Amino acid sequence: MKGIQQRFFAGALFALILSGALFSGVEIVPSARAQSRGDASLIARAQSITGDRFTAGTTTPRGARVYFIVRPRAEVLRAIDSGLSELFAVARRRGYRARLNHSDYTIFIARADRTRDSSGAYSPDIAVGAAQYAGSVYDQGGYVYAAGMVLSTQSCAFIIAEHARDFGRISNVARYEGEHLVLYHNDRALYSKTLDHSGGGGHPILQ
Ligand SMILES: [Zn+2]
Prior knowledge:
This protein is α/β, with parallel strands linked by helices. The protein has a domain at 4-71 and 102-163. The chain has five helices and nine strands, in the order αββαββαβββββαα. Helix 3 (74-93) packs parallel to helix 4 (167-186) and helix 4 packs across helix 5 (188-194).
């Protein structure tokens, strides 16, 4: 368990993804409050949440910014691009126009706090504060495991975990976190309606 800034999650909105074959675990979308501009601020917040130090960055072939601990393999960067590309194509078909370029997005690849889920399946996830999940079946003792977490809706930034394989899962997480961000900038009503999966519903939201 890495350092967790519980205060950051106070009053945050949590999104829950139901277990699935390709994508399982909890996924988190914080509220839009306290989000500021600039990579320095984003990096500081990503570090406070994950307990990692993001000292290096790169861009994917299509131009998304990526901050990492261990330099990601080319397959990882391509997987991020692929997930976002699929999302943007679906979004364009719906007539959305805002934030549909890879260069609009910033991804933090954090150390995984676990690599297998409770069923033993490969599932690199990050541990984040449980907040209102405290006491639920997801509560691991003050924290929950998340496949991904939206870091900033305004800046289109999210956190995923390092993967050594199963890069298709990275594509899915990138697409799914990206869905919340695309909706935030293109359809605020649907964004609000789909932010919290705890009442049912998951990803993909846009098909
Ligand atoms: Zn979600």
